[in-house]
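QA checklist item 7 of 12: single-chain prediction sanity check.
[x] sequence parsed
[x] length recorded as 137
[x] structure emitted
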Amino acid sequence: MIAKGEVMQLLLAACPSFREAWTAYVTSPDYEEGLLYIDLGEYADHLVELASSGRTADFPAVFDVVERLHLEGDAYVREAATIGLCEGIQNVASNTGVDAALFVPYLKPETARWWAELNAFWDGKSPYVGAGINPKK
């Protein structure tokens, strides 16, 4: 089971181009250790920047890790993979004029299901993220 403390190291290994930005981020006076959602926001920014410049060579490895987070993560990690990272990518892309659809070809099956759930929620077609996967009875 992948735990919270393992997530960023897995993602860093999948996307070496993030290493410099990560080092700058974690050595800044504002950095607070253990805030995975904030860390994932930094990672999402980097991925959108890469997509906007067509530098997607690391995306297969990145989204292999994201799929692992969805399938092998503890409950916190699974939720963070969707709400922290996938939703972060969608929001950053939307706010910077990048088409989030650029990421879709790289999504593995479980990640694609949660990506679609985010879209359904934000399009007003679902009462909450996951309603189509885990409908309340």
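[x] summary fact logged: The CA atoms of residues 12 and 19 lie 6 Å apart.
[ ] second reviewer sign-off
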